[in-house]
Design brief:
Keywords: Cell membrane, GTP-binding, Ion transport, Iron, Iron transport, Magnesium, Membrane, Metal-binding, Nucleotide-binding, Transmembrane, Transmembrane helix, Transport. By secondary structure, the chain is α/β, with parallel strands linked by helices. It contains 27 helices and 9 strands.
Length: about 675
C-alpha cells in the first residue's frame, strides 16, 4: 500500500461561480478519531458551515468541494460534503448514532442538508477491524459507497500492510488508501467520489456471514474480524519502547498528576502571554470606533446608546476572543498529540474514588467548551446512576463562557503579570474540578449511592499534531462564540443601557442630593472636579430603573462584597455567564467621554472604580469573591433545559440550579472573609 507524495498545491481547486455546476451530496461517516474531520477540512479548504441537526445539539459541518472533469468550466462538478458525527455503529445507542442513522436513511426531515447521493466511510488503517463494523452497516444502506483508508502512512510505519484490492473485493465497493494529513491519495478519492455521486459506481452488495446468523450484532463483529484478518497483515512489529517509557511516566500515580498540572499551567501561561497583544489591539479598535462615533454624532442619548451601549457592550466581550481561540488551539494540539487520553488515565484514579465513572472524563473534558454537548455526551454512559451524577456535576467544569469573566478578574488583580494571572486561571479551573469531584462524592454518600463502572480505554499512539487543524478548530470555536453570544449580548447590552439611563434624575434633585452627600463628609472633595463628576454619575445611575432594581437586590449580595452594579451584572448573567462583562462595561463606562485621546479599558475602569466614600469597589477580597461565585454558579438557561431533557424531569434541573447557587454563594462568602481575615490588600 504505497502512497504517492502529493504537492499540497495540486489539491487546490479553482473556485467557480458557474451556475450550471452540478451539485451532489457526499456524506463522510466513520468512527471517532479516524481523521474524518481532517479529510473534510482537506476537501473543503475550511469553506464550511457548522450547524446542528434540527431539534438537537448534535453538530454537522457542510462544505463545498469543486471538481473539473475537463479543462472547460461547463464540466465542473460541485460536491456538497457533509461531515457527520463520529459513531461506532448505526444501532442508535447514542444520540449521535440515532441522528446519523435517521439522516442517512431519510427518516429525519432535515431541511438544511439534502440526502446524500454517496457515502465515504473513513476507516483507521491502524485498526481496520474496529472500523469495519460501521462500514458493513453503511453498505446495508444500498447507496454508492467508497471506503477511504486513512492514516495509511502511519500504518506503513507500524509495519501494517492492507490489501486494498482484496478488501475492495470483499466489500464490493472502491477502497482508496489516503492520508488526510499529507494529502496523499486524495486525488484518487476525488475521482471515486465523483463517479459514486453521479451514479456511475455500483451499489455494493451487503456482505453475508455464514455463522451466527441468529445474532446480527455478533455476526457483524465476527465478519469484521474475519475480513480484517484476511486483508491486512503486520510485516513487522514497530518498536514502542520509547512510547511505553513515556506512558509509564505520564500515567504514573505520582508523576502523572504533577505532569498534568505542569501542562495546564503552561497552557494558561501561553494563553495570557500570546493573547496580550491582540487583546490590546482589539481594545484600541473598539476605543477608536467609539471616538469616531462620538466625533460624528452630537452629544446626547443617541451618542450614548452607540458608545456606552452597543460598542461598550460588544467590545467588552469580544476583546476576550483571542484568549478563547488560543486556548482551543493549544487544547487541540494536546488532543491530537495523544496526551489528553493519558490524562484520562491519570484523572480516572481520582474520579472512581469520588463516585464518577471513567467514561465521564470525555463529557467532563467536553464541558470545557460548553456544558450542553457535554451533558448530551453522557448518553454513552450506560449505568443510569453514573450518568445522572455526571450530568449534575458537569456544569461545574469551566466552560468557554466563563473565560471572559476569569480574564477580566485576572486583569484587575494582576495587570501585565502573566504568570500570576495564569496561576489564578489554573486555580479557577482546578477549583471547578475539585468542586465537581467533591459534589460527586457527596452524592455518592447521600442521594445517589453506588460505585462507578471501571474505565476501559484504548490509548491512541503519540502523533505529531497538525498546526493547520488546530488553527481551523480554534477558528471554528471563535466563530461559534461570536455567533452564539453576539445576539444575546447585544440585546442585553441595549436593555442595560436603557434601564441605566432612564428615568433621568431632575437637575434640582441632583443638586440637593450632591449637597447632602458633601455635608455628610463621605470622602468627596468638592474642589476636585473628578470627584464631583463621579458623584454626579453615581447619583444619576442610582436614580435610574436599573439602579433601583440593583439597590433592591444588593442587600442579598452585600455579604459577598458586591455593590449594586455588580449585583445587577450577576443577576443578568443567570441567562448567560458572559453577559456580566458587557453589563459591567456599560455600567462602569457610563459618563466616560469617548472623545478623549485615551479611553480606559474595562480592566482599568474597574480597578479605578470607587464607592461614594472613595474606597475601591473591586478590592482583592471582592474580586476573588466574584471569581469564586462565577466558578461555582449555574448561570446558563440552555444548560438547564438540556438537563431536564436528558434526565426526563425538571426536578433534577431545579436541584442542579439550587445546589450550585448555594455552593457559589457560600464559596464566595468564605473566600472573601478569609482574605479579609488574612489582611490581603
Amino acid at each position: 500500500m504505497n502512497l504517492p507524495i502529493v504537492d499540497p498545491a495540486e489539491l487546490q481547486r479553482p473556485v467557480s461561480t458557474n451556475p450550471a455546476a452540478d451539485t451532489k451530496t457526499v456524506a463522510l461517516i466513520g468512527n471517532p478519531n479516524v481523521g474524518k474531520t481532517s479529510l473534510f477540512n482537506r476537501l473543503t479548504n475550511l469553506l464550511a458551515k457548522t450547524s446542528n441537526f434540527s431539534g438537537t445539539t448534535i453538530e454537522h459541518r457542510v462544505g463545498t468541494h469543486r471538481l473539473h472533469a475537463s479543462e472547460t468550466p461547463e464540466h465542473e462538478s460541485v460536491l456538497r460534503i457533509v461531515d457527520l458525527p463520529g459513531v461506532y455503529s448505526l444501532d442508535g445507542k447514542t444520540l449521535e448514532e440515532t441522528v446519523t442513522r435517521e439522516y442517512l436513511t431519510g427518516t429525519r426531515e432535515e431541511r438544511k442538508v439534502p440526502l446524500p447521493d454517496a457515502l465515504v466511510v473513513v476507516v483507521d488503517a491502524t485498526n481496520l477491524e474496529r472500523s469495519l463494523f460501521v462500514t458493513r452497516q453503511a453498505l446495508e444502506l444500498s447507496k454508492p459507497t467508497i471506503v477511504a483508508i486513512n492514516l495509511s502512512d502511519l500504518a506503513e510505519r507500524q509495519g501494517i500492510e492492507i490489501d486494498c484490492e482484496g478488501l475492495s473485493s470483499k466489500l464490493g465497493c472502491p477502497v482508496v488508501p489516503i492520508s488526510a494529513r499529507t494529502g496523499a491519495g486524495i486525488q484518487e478519492l476525488e475521482t471515486k467520489m465523483l463517479e459514486a455521486s453521479g451514479g456511475d459506481a455500483p451499489v455494493a452488495a451487503v456482505p453475508e456471514c455464514t455463522s451466527c446468523m441468529t445474532c446480527p450484532y455478533a455476526q457483524g463483529h465476527q465478519w469484521a474480524a474475519s475480513v480484517a484478518a484476511e486483508t491486512s497483515k503486520r510485516k513487522y512489529v514497530a518498536s514502542s519502547e520509547w512510547t511505553d517509557a513515556v506512558d509509564r511516566w505520564m500515567t504514573n500515580s505520582w508523576v502523572g498528576p504533577v505532569a498534568f498540572f505542569a501542562v495546564m499551567l503552561t497552557l494558561f501561561s501561553l494563553v495570557f502571554w500570546l493573547a496580550q497583544f491582540p487583546m490590546e489591539l482589539l481594545d484600541s479598535v473598539f476605543g477608536g470606533l467609539a471616538e469616531v462615533v462620538a466625533s460624528v454624532i452630537p452629544e446626547g442619548d443617541i451618542q450614548s446608546l452607540l458608545t456606552d451601549g452597543v460598542i461598550a457592550g460588544m467590545g467588552g466581550v469580544l476583546v476576550f476572543l483571542p484568549q478563547i481561540m488560543i486556548l482551543f488551539f493549544v487544547l487541540t494540539l494536546l488532543e491530537d498529540s495523544g496526551y489528553l487520553s493519558r490524562a484520562v488515565v491519570v484523572v480516572d484514579r481520582w474520579m472512581r474514588r469520588v463516585g464518577l465513572p471513567g467514561q465521564a472524563f470525555v463529557p467532563l473534558l467536553t464541558a470545557h467548551a460548553c456544558a450542553i454537548p457535554a451533558i448530551m455526551a453522557t448518553r454513552t454512559i450506560e449505568n443510569r446512576r453514573d450518568r445522572l451524577v455526571s450530568i449534575l456535576v458537569i456544569p461545574l467544569m469551566t466552560c468557554s463562557a466563563r473565560l471572559p469573566v476569569y480574564t477580566m478578574i485576572a486583569a484587575m488583580l494582576f495587570p501585565r503579570q502573566a504568570l500570576y494571572a495564569a496561576l489564578m486561571f489554573a486555580g479557577a479551573y482546578f477549583l471547578g474540578m475539585f468542586a465537581a469531584f467533591a459534589m460527586a462524592l457527596l452524592f455518592k454518600w447521600s442521594i445517589l449511592p453506588g460505585n462507578p463502572a471501571p474505565l476501559i480505554l484504548d490509548l491512541p499512539p503519540y502523533r505529531m499534531p497538525s498546526i493547520k487543524n488546530a488553527l481551523r478548530h480554534a477558528w471554528d470555536r471563535g466563530l461559534a462564540f461570536v455567533r452564539d453570544a453576539g445576539t444575546v449580548i447585544l440585546l442585553i447590552s441595549l436593555a442595560i443601557w436603557a434601564l441605566s439611563t432612564y428615568p433621568k434624575l431632575p437637575e434640582d434633585q441632583l443638586l440637593s442630593q450632591m449637597a447632602a452627600v458633601q455635608a455628610s463628609d463621605a470622602g468627596v472633595d468638592i474642589s476636585n472636579s473628578d470627584d464631583i463628576e463621579r458623584l454626579q454619575m453615581q447619583l444619576s445611575e442610582e436614580h435610574s430603573a436599573l439602579g433601583r432594581m440593583g439597590k433592591a437586590v444588593q442587600p442579598v449580595f452585600a455579604p459577598l462584597g458586591f455593590d449594586w452594579k455588580t449585583s445587577v451584572g450577576v443577576m443578568a448573567s443567570f441567562a448567560a455567564r458572559e453577559v456580566v462583562v458587557s453589563t459591567l462595561s456599560i455600567l462602569y463606562g457610563m459618563g466616560d467621554d469617548p472623545g478623549d485621546d485615551e479611553i480606559a479599558s474595562l480592566h482599568s475602569r474597574l480597578r479605578s472604580a470607587k464607592h461614594i466614600d472613595g474606597t475601591p469597589v473591586f478590592d482583592t477580597a471582592t474580586s476573588v469573591s466574584l471569581l469564586v461565585f462565577f466558578v461555582l454558579a449555574m448561570q446558563c438557561l440552555p444548560t438547564q433545559a438540556v438537563t431536564k431533557k436528558e434526565t426526563g424531569s425538571w426536578k433534577w434541573a431545579f436541584f442542579q440550579f439550587g445546589y450550585m447557587s448555594v455552593l457559589a454563594y457560600v464559596g464566595a462568602f468564605v473566600a472573601r472573609h478569609v482574605i479579609l481575615m488574612l489582611g490581603i490588600a
